[in-house]
């Protein structure tokens, strides 16, 4: 599986855009322009945060305190999506399809 494969639909979570905005504000990430605009420019699909995602993220039986990661996992489980990440803690979560980034 590859993101660049035109047969794949790529979703970008609002959670990721939110985290990018926070890290940019704190000076932890150098990113110019609008992260949300990049989604559409690249032909990706925006994945909104639904109330059920928040509820599921809070209820995950997982000792991971990062709310962004918990939301990403909950969204991936709900929507049956493969999560692309370099985070080994997410790779260790059972029951989620993960593609290693980086």
Q: What can you tell me about this protein's structure?
A:
Helix content is 44%, strand content 12%. Helix 3 crosses helix 4 (67-79). The chain is globular and about 35 Å long. The chain starts with 10 loop residues before the first strand and ends with a strand. The protein has a single domain (11-100), classed as Rossmann fold, CATH 3.40.50. It has 102 residues and is an alpha/beta fold.
Give the % helix. 40-55%
Number of strands: 4
CATH topology label = Rossmann fold
CATH class bucket: Alpha Beta
Question: What proportion of the residues form beta strands (DSSP E)?
Answer: 5-15%
The CATH architecture classification is 3-Layer(aba) Sandwich
Query: What is the fourth-level CATH superfamily?
Result: 5'-nuclease
Structural class: alpha/beta
N-to-C series of helices and strands: EHHEHHEHE
Strand order in space, largest sheet = 1-2
What's the domain count?
1
Number of helices: 5
What is the 3D form? globular
From the N-terminal CA to the C-terminal CA, the straight-line distance is 14 Å
- What is the gyration radius calculated from CA atoms? 14 Å
Poorly predicted runs: none
- Return the average pLDDT rounded to an integer: 90
Tell me the major beta sheet: 2 strands, parallel
What's a quick, concise take on this entry?
The protein has 102 residues and is an alpha/beta fold. Helix content is 44%, strand content 12%.
Q: What is this structure's SSE topology?
A:
Blueprint (H helix, E strand, L loop, with lengths): L10 E3 H12 L9 H7 L3 E3 L3 H9 L7 H13 L3 E3 L2 H4 L6 E3 L2
Parallel strand pairs: 1-2, 3-4
């Amino acid at each position: 599986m590859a993101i660049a494969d035109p047969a794949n639909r790529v979703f970008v979570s609002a959670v990721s855009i939110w985290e990018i905005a926070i890290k940019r504000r704190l000076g932890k990430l150098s990113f110019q322009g609008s992260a949300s605009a990049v989604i559409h420019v690249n032909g990706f699909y925006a994945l909104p945060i639904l109330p059920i995602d928040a509820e599921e993220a809070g209820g995950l039986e997982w000792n991971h305190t990062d709310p962004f990661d918990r939301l990403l996992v909950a969204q991936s489980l709900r929507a049956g999506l493969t999560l692309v990440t370099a985070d080994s803690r997410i790779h260790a979560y059972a029951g989620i399809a993960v593609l290693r980034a980086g």
